[in-house]
Amino acid sequence: MARTRRSGFLRDFQDFALKGNVVDLAVGVVIGAAFGKIVTSLVENIVMPFVDPLLKVFGSDWRNIAFNATKFDPATKAPLDGVRLGLFLGSIVDFAIIALVLFIAIQAIQKMKRKEEVEAAEAPPEPTVLAQERLTGAIEHLTRTIESRQA
Fold it and tell me: What pLDDT was estimated at residue 12?
């Protein structure tokens, strides 16, 4: 009896785990992680070299701004204790840049989709449909002409 329940449970779990939604979610998470690495690289290696000089007003390394710092790491000169305001501000800047990049990417994708929809909507009708419309128009014209002559 326990074996039946277990196989029923395993069967239910297998059905759940292999549903399209779960598999799609797993693929989305993996692709999202890879895309996150790309965006992080874009921010750190391309965008931040232009942003960092603008933020030098806060000091030579603005990400190490801290209050009530009592100890500093001798290798990096970064504070070990205290409120690390620089790291928090750096995370906010990173988030804003990542959000902007994602917004631009999504806008570009939506624009391409709209173009595809417009092209699909503008597709010319099939030749048989055009021929049927012309034939129907000609028959209607003939019917009116005949009716006008009989009256």
Answer: 84
Note if the pTM is more than 0.85: no
Quote the Cα angle for 105-110-114, to 5°. Answer: 150
Residue 63 in contact with residue 77, Cβ under 8 Å?
no
| Residue 138 or 17, more confident | 138
Neighbouring residues of 77: CB distance < 8 A, sequence distance ≥ 6: 61, 64
* Percentage above 70 pLDDT, the chain: 80
User: What radius of gyration do the chain's Cα atoms show?
Assistant: 33
Q: How far is the CA of 8 from the CAs of 2, 5, 17, 21, 141, in angstroms?
A: 10, 5, 14, 21, 71
DSSP string, the chain: -HHHHHHHHHHHHHHHHTSHHHHHHHHHHHHHHHHHHHHHHHIIIIIHHHHGGGGGGG-SSGGG--BS---B-TTT--BSSSB-HHHHHHHHHHHHHHHHHHHHHHHHHHHHHHHHHHHHHTPPPPHHHHHHHHHHHHHHHHHHHHHHHH-
